[in-house]
Batch of 3 targets.
Target 1
Amino acid sequence: MSPGSVIGRGAVVRGNVRGEGSLEILGRVEGDVNVSGDVVLGESGVVRGNVSGVELSIAGTVQGDLRGSQSVLLERGARVVGDLSAPRIGVAQGALVRGTVRTDGEPALAGAARRGAQLHAPRPAPAAAPPKPFVVKEAPKPLVSEEPEAEAPKPEAKHEPKPEKEKESSPRERERPPAPVVPALGKGAKAKKKRREA
Amino acid sequence: MLGAGTRVTGRVTGDGSVRLDGSLKGDVQITGAAEIGAGATVEGNVHAEAVEVSGSLIGDVSASGPIAVRSGALVRGELKGAEVSIEPGSRVSVRIDTELELDLGAAPRRR
Amino acid sequence: MAGTVIGEGLSIEGDLTSDEEVVVHGTVRGKLTTSDAVTVGGTGSVQADVSGSSVSIAGQVTGDVTAQERIDLQAGGRLVGDVKASRFTIADGASFKGNVDMEM
């Protein structure tokens, strides 16, 4: 069998991650994670999408649901907006979660759907949703991979009416994340700051 | 303190802390800490400064301080507290309404 | 230790961007871009463009490969796509179909 997989601290995945084995995420995944083994999300790890595996150990940040076929454990420092479900669930002191938490066998909370559903509505469709074996060749680009724009969203990530071609090369446009998903920090920012200071 | 074997239907209010080991059908509203012991059964909403549940609680909880769900506890309801912790080994169906904004919009880290 | 390791059996349906070393024993169906080294192991497969400081391929790559330093197509490796690097080696037992640009 393979050794476990690691999404390194400096890595960004735009799309789904799935398959056999265990996975450690220290970087960023914008898409769903679904593996047959355990998932460890390190402090530096960020997932915007649902995560499922056998045992989930979360110390990083997640916007999306967490499903463990055995357990979901949020460690100190974890920040999760989404629903947790597993036969065994732990939320350590110093972990923050907003959403429903349900151990297997327990009935869903009456009315839990309303706000729960809202939480997830704005989740992005994973950037590269359908398995797309080949990326269509784009017009020849300067091959300078160390530039930040190497991370610029692929055109396919946004299907809205395409802005004009020339717009695409404006740096502002390129640096934008694929789709605005989380309302820009604002509403609770102050509260959060307060919390940090507390 | 509500001893084991005690059954109360009604409201528990007051200054100070309370430990429940019996069975209570009704709300708890106190200024101190509420501790729901391993053998206790509470059906009602709990409002206290801090809440620790080792027994069974069906109802909403709000606390200005921490809410702790211990291993072996059964909790169904909304939990609203400064901080909510849940020990593995508890049975829960809860909604946690922590004020939490994720800072996900940040550009991917570059070093 | 490598920054990112995609184990055998794991697949990424989308792009992977990094500033650390990336090792692929599984599958990446999307662009793989890093400023560090890329290794596509014998069981690895990348079905899109690959770019890194150096790229070593013992598995399969279908897509263009660009490296700042070098590209090594190992024995058993299979590359269908164009190559751009100042150094490019093809081992005995490797297969390659595409154009090579070794301009500096």
Target 2
Amino acid sequence: MIAHWAILSGIEGNLRALEAVLRDLQRQRPPITTLYVLGDIIGLKGENDAVVQRLQMPDLEPLEPQICIGWWEEQCFNLFGVGISGEVPELIAQQGEAAVGRLWESISRSSVQWLRSLPFGFHELDCLLVHGSPVSASEVLTPATSPVVLCDRLIRADANQLFCGRSGELFDCWIRAEALTSEVKTLDGREEQTFDLSQRRLIGVGSVGRQPSMASYVLYQPGNNQLKQCFVRY
Amino acid sequence: MKYAVISCIHGNYEALNAVLLDIDRQRVDQIYCLGDLVGYGPYPNAVVEMIRSLDIPTCQGCWDEDIVMGLNACECSYPSQLAEKRGRRAHEWTNRVLHPEVRDYLAQLPMTLRQGNLCFVHGSPNSQHEYLLPSMHGFAALERVLAAQAEVLFCGHTHIPYVRYLREGKIRVQHRGETPQEFQATVKMIVNAGSVGEPRHGRPNATYVIYDTDTQEVTLREVPYDYQKTCAAILEQGLPPIFAWRLARGMEFAERADDPHHVCQR
């Protein structure tokens, strides 16, 4: 069977948007072999527990859903005292004070526990799939990000394709770096080296639930490197 | 202006004295210190008091942070579990002997210092624990200098001094369906100040650097001192004897093969 990946992010608790995308996936040819969900499963767009349960349903089995954490999950972990920090300054700064109570009310402890078991991302073939960047789930990468930062993140990713979802945007951009000369002098000598970075790709996978009535995601065939950007009205 | 930049003193008062004397002879205008005043060595209080009395601008190192915040060696340097155990013993000893006012001083040190287009950090602009090794990919190194919004980035943490020039970096970004954008970086420099009190360049001499802003010349300085005095004090204080052994040889010591699965505690 031809490997055909569907890669989504940013459901943000929007069950209607998720159902619409799942229906769209059933229609895709060649059939989808792997479903990647790059974080932000939960958010403030609807029913967090329902989305968590939906992603665990057996009817998704043939798609082998591979799910990792995103920015919203990290906020949730901090809020429930199971994260790196016991505070949520990013949540308050980006979503306002009221978001703290709303997020707390919107999700059960058992869902938090399940989310806590999810990985940071996936390294598959020559691809890295994460929510933000190899540095953090919070970091937003887009084609407008400083080219040097993009190079650094691709080096850290140790992958030819870096899929990310934090921006919620769909994009497909190629980065190539060449001709950097590095001269190092130590107490014992001097060494010169030239660095380059063969062409790498940064892919924004869109957002399922962030925009009302319009979901977006990408399809990718690792066999031929083909990428398709998809939109679904719901 | 002529700056002397010192780093990683690690409680080695003998080495600090020798380096300060050498700096005095070089007629510099200002000294900067990149942290790690304490840890490993037997005189943490005396070292901090000396730095404070000379009013040397200093940023916080990973050891200084760990003493203040509690052992928290994420992305740590320990290459083996045995090395980590020794590090923990040194941490506990330092924590026990440190004077409260010294701890308060270490707590208020900034992560970064700036002077014009120069930036001073302990490890990297990202973290006190990140190593900017001379072998780091050139574009990743360039990103660290740009992240610091500097032309010259001074760091320590590796205990081996070097100066690295990054020239002619060119990057092409092409968004689907659009014209490629080209980015060209100007020359940037990373200067590693080495280590005053725990050198690892293969000789026991203390190391530091001098930077001349007028000529942009970097001089790596190597200063002999009576390291045997410090070695004896390490043993007297009951610190791990391997610290004296490696200080006398100017090298890191680690049992890599014993602990291939070392995992940081954090």
Target 3
Amino acid sequence: MARVAPSPAGIAVRAVGLALCALLAGPGCRTLRISPAPPVTSADWVTEGDAPARHGSAAGRLTPPLQEAWVYNAHAGFGTASPLIWQHVVFVATRKGEVHAIDRMTGKKRGTKAFGDAIEGSPVLHDHVLYVPSAWGGRAVTAYDVRTGTTRWRIDGPPVEAGLLVVDGRLIVADVTGAVRAFDAASGQGLWERPPDDGRSGIFATPLAVEGHVLVADDRGHAVLLEAATGAVRWTHRLPAPVYRTPVTDGRRIFVPTTRGRFVALDARDGRPLWTHTEPDTTVRFTAPAYRDGAVFVGTSDGRLLRLAAATGEVRWEAPAGESLVATPLPAEDVVYVGGMDRRLYALDTRTGERVWSVELEGRVKSPMAARDGFLVVLAEPRFVYAFTTATTYAVVDP
Amino acid sequence: MFSSRSPVLAVLMLALALPAYGQYGFHFGRNKIQYEDFDWHILKTEHFDIYYYPEMQALAEHGAHFAEEAYEELKSKFNFALNHRVPIIFYSSNIHFKQTNITPGFIPDGVGGFFEFLKGRVVIPANGNIHRFRRVIRHEMVHVFTYAKVLRELRDHRVAPDRFLPLWFTEGLAEYWSGEPDYQHEMVLRDALYSNWLVPLENIYRIAGTYQMYKQGEALCRFISERYGEEKLLQLMENLYKTRDFNEVMELTLREDFLDIADAWDAWLKARYYPELEELELPTRLAQGISVQGFNSKPAYYAFRDGRRRVYFMGNRTGYTNVYQVELDSTLAPVGEPEVLIHGERTDRFEAFHLFESRISISRDGRLAFVTKSGEQDVIHVYDLEADELGPTYRFEGLIAVYSPTWSPDGTRLAFASIDRSGFADLYVYDTETGLTQRLTADSYDDRDPSWSPDGTRIAFASDRTALGHGDAYNLFTYDLTTGQIRYVTYGDHHDFSPRWSPDGNYLLFTSARRDSTGRFGGQNIWVADMRDAVDPPPVVASADLLPLDSPPTAGVVTRPLRQLTNLTTVAYDPVWAGPDAIVFTSFEGMRFTIRRLADVDSLMAFPKRREQVRLAGAGPHWSFERLGSEDGAERAPYRRKYNLDVAQGQVGQNPFWGTTGGAAVVFSDMLGNDYWYATLYNTAESRDDFLRSLNVAVSRVQLQRRANIAYGAYRFGGRRYDITDPDAPRTFPVFWETVYGGYGAVSYPISMFRRIELTTSLSWSDKEVPFRQIDRQALLLSNALSLVHDNALYGMNGPVDGWRTNLTVGYTTDVLYSNVSYVSAMADVRHYWRLGRYLTLASWVLGRINSGREARLWVLGGSWDLRGHRLFSIRGTKMWFTSHELRFPILTAPSAFIPVLAPFGIANLRGALFFDAAHAWNEGYDVRESQLLTGETRGAAGLGFRINLFGGFVLRYDLGYRFSDGFRQRSDLFRQFFFGWDF
């Protein structure tokens, strides 16, 4: 039988058909399974700010100049979710609702999993379970076992735009209705719930752990310290402005950024205000702060990075950086890193604020960073994950 | 993203803005003329490329500072920074702004600026008021940030940017974040509440694009900020990815039911404004109406020698702005309806009036001075009221915009405010006898509203040169014509405008808008200043150098008594004395600007609403805004044309007859929109062998920067064609093969806004093959055409309703190589629109077309756009005449009178048309019939049609009637035809 050459139209139809098949099959192939799965240790950066206290400080040296190790295309932008570093894997959550697992050595994709329509707040990795908040799409939180690639449990409910907190085996979830709920991290069983104060407040700042307690701050300026075990209110304080970014604590003090030119330090014991740093321009917003060695580092929306004395609130230095700052700074041993809305990553001397290094990125930096052992992960617009290493010290041992 | 200076002009904007594309490819349309050859330069600041011309460098440097200032503020408000440079194009006056090619449409008065999405350009004119200039820059910068942020949010979430914030939100936010609410904002909101026309939140889409929407949107954003927190304004943008329905976005963000939000806003407004109502007077209750229909402003009063009294004013009752007159009786009550004295906006001489910006003045001997735009600048016309004839027109070298002329008492000189190419407003005096113009002020202050004192020694005017002017205050001053000294008349953090001397020179009438105890502006009221100065206040400007004194003399405190005559709910504008005991003024109420008479002024003076002694000494020093120039680090460079991609579009189609077709088109243009390159590539090949034969490619360049617009290009068209106008093509299915390549050139020269000459020429090689008729013809075709186009038609929602337009064209096409083709073309197309009533128009259209000679092309007719009841283009002939007449009448006009954009939503402006059409086409002989072409017989139609405009630009048409043929001897059954398109 004679073989008939396909017409151009026929070729086009086949190509479209194949493309459709690929599109339909693509999402179904997506999974997130890390095997073998090394243990999660304290050396990993598995929650926003590295620890439930959210200090956000890099352990080990991270001395500039840094070198770009790889760039990964996550195919969507990033919210205020922090990347997570777990041994040889980097997890990144996108505003498209996906979590990407990236090989830390090579920058290659190890897996992708969709969790609802958008992720704004930081996921947390605890005992090989990745807890992912969903900002839209019906789900609230998904507990996903990264060893088996299966969903352990899921909670539906109001969107969660704040990051998650795991403290003493309890998962703390604060949602956009202002409700705070605690679940057994292993089973998903509800432990306690604190209903919203009123019908209109929402929580967008990630809760943090303060000596066995949980601090939540909402968009109407209410700061509440709750017993982690029971949800009982230890104290409340009305802040002078809404809170949209994650506070940080040194154990004794809680440093709270607001949206209206006020940065407040509260006494962790009773919520009493210790000091307030006030900007003359009340439209200035603060980034989430970071804490290291008695100093608080915080950026401002008008493009300044401040180092404040944790004890007094005194401004030790302020330095221009980044045109406008939205992302949390990340202090290391001698320098503090901050990504700007001017598409640059800066390193400033922690003692003087002097700029010691910077590098241009593809887009703005709006998300927190994560760092481990001379390895820094930066999320930049429009959809890129950057990995930087120190020039000499980087090494990863694959277990 | 337009922002408006004047509320009514913004309201009218949609109605008056006509398509400007008439010069290019369409028969009709008015002309947007580039009178000026701007020498563009660029000032590069940290975040902006400021485009300006050297004459306005100082203003551009102020603008650069304002832009950077706004940027610094907005990056915190938006929690965002731009990562691209923003091009801002400044013009020094509205008249220059009207010439911009960055938007193809016409720009009416009152548009403060716009932001366009294609290249992200911000375009802003100055109008003499530097505060306004600063505010508009901030307004447009809010748009730039909003657009960039929303787009970023959508892209971050991988949501297609096929949604955007509603206009009320973007414009409201831009107003809210560009400064404190001004007195016009308060004026509109008070009126909305007191006159009960506030559009609820759930229906706010109905006023999209109007000034009301701007102000209601601003109030909504303020309400959201106060009730829910300013941060929620940003969250509304950030949550747009979740749903297209902005009402739902509001519910998600504000965490309240949408209707509850709407109710809360309504209650919030009422709580702010209702408590004041008890103290206030409605203009309609206080003052008798003299002209209350349409938009009316800028009244002037004149008592004739024979005892007649009239009020003259600018008005827009029909869509055109005219000067009107209305007779008054002895009690100053109107006698009859206002009549048009000067027909405006239809002729080159009175091309456009400044309806709300320029006062008119009448001399003691009855000569009316008024301003119109005429060509590249404003001019002052004089009309002799006693003789009832038009007098001279005064044009001033170097002065672009002219406002508010006022006669000297002896009637020989005119004082006026004007903006030159620098963009700053100053005062001038023109001597009509010597022809000399004297400049009285020369600085960056906004000097306006001059009024000559009855003794001829002083000119009162309003200005922001007050020591409080840095905060946007306007006070009144006098200019001493003997010494050149300027003195305060009023002083305070107010908006004092529109001074007018009393006939005896003892008082100065003016309007003043002041903040009340809440800090908000109250109504703008009529005040009187007592000018019987015992002691002159100290001068604030010396005569020698026109420089402000740093510290005015303070020896002895001088005070002036002021009296507030009204306490209005809204606003009074431009009061003038009408005899010794009456005042005529413009009032705003119920979204209408009306002319009213305030009687018993003596008693109002005796028992004013409020008395005040204003202290005039001790006024502060000179002020100015900062500038950002090259000495501050900005770089300056001449503009060099660079082309960026505007549009790239591809298309693939599949058709059983044509097979697979595909192509792409790209458009490039420069930053100023003066120079366009168009490129098209298209292929209709059915097989690989036909690929080259069916390749269509065209490249064109259109240059708009000069008065004469030029286009030229080259093309190659080939393949199978369907052409019903080709005389050699089969009649029933006119398909043949043709390859054409060549070039063309076109020049369009506007004589005025309403008339132009068009010349086109082309030279092309044509190889035509008509297989069914065994024709294989080659020709080198030279084609030339010359057209004269006139168009002053006024558009309603469905098409023209007034004015007339015509297109006269002659052309010649010949084969210069083989003489295979040689024919002449002539066409006369005349359309006239008689306004029989406010909403009633009789439209008539007469058309004649001839193509005569070898291979003359066929003209076509038929379809809903011309000969109704017949199939589209079913009548074809080398010669034809056609006539159509329509009586266009309203069926539903409802609130569209002052909220015209209700119409797009289908609930208003349903119109009808009684029509009669007739046509006759022929080829060889007038009566020779060709059934396939429907020639040789007079055909026609008569019936009734309905029209409705959707979304402001898409007109649906439904006609039913009888079709006639055979010289109207035969009538068909009733036909029904549904189509789209504007009325002819």
